[in-house]
Amino acid sequence: MLSKVVFLVVCASVNCFPRLTSLQPRFSFYTRSDWHAQPATDLTPLSTPVPYVIIHHTYKPDACTSHQECITAMQSMQRYHMESLDWGDIGYNFCIGNSGDIYEGRGWERKGIHAGKANDVSIGICLIGDWRVDQPPQEMLEATKALIQMGVDKGIISPDYKLVGHNQVMATQCPGTALFDIISKWDHFSNKFSVA
Question: List the disulfide bonds (predicted).
Fold first, then answer.
């Protein structure tokens, strides 16, 4: 019995128990069930670790400033992506609301449909709103960085990943000029995208 007590004391002193990620508790993370996602029909696995993180904006729907608005935005995007575009689910791996709340889309394990030829080699993160002129709130930007770090910590995103905007992969205004100007100053930003 004494050996068990000693082990627990030693274990606690060297942090043997799992640590909370930087995502907790500062940012709230909502699963698919939390926002009442429809069951996906496209369950294609993602080969990890991925070498790219691709940043998007929605343009429409507009920025969501409350949890309920973000749930509505997620449901709207999923409906459009599944029913109008026949993508089998919402296209993004994750989406982020104004307050920094993070919403699981396809998640870490499934390939997204968000950036053409980059889908096989990336995690797609969408900042909900139109960021062509307006800058996203700081909480949204910090949550994006924390989410990327979580992906690195999980071994899903390569530690030497490259960060790019959707407009570097396809002809689009996404992720918006204002947001692109911000991410172009972040660590890991790359001016080039290529699939070997």
Answer: 64-70
Interior/surface letters 98-120, b for 16+ CB within 10 angstroms, e for the rest:
bbbbbbbbbbbebbbbbbeebbe
151-170 residue pLDDT tens? 999 999 999 999 999 999 99
pLDDT digits (tens, 9 = 90+) for 94-129: 999 999 999 999 999 999 999 999 999 999 999 999
35, 70 in Cβ contact below 8 A? Answer: yes
| 46 vs 112: CA distance, rounded Å | 8
Please name which of 73, 129, 83, 59 lies closest in space to residue 105, comparing C-alpha atoms: 73
Distance CA 150, CA 143 (A): 10
Bridge partners of 54, per DSSP, are: 124, 164
Q: Where are the beta strands (DSSP E) in 98-178?
A: 102-104, 122-127, 157-165
pTM of the complete model: 0.86
Closest CA to 124 of 193, 71, 67: 193
What whole-number distance in Å separates Cα of residue 72 and Cα of residue 15? Answer: 40
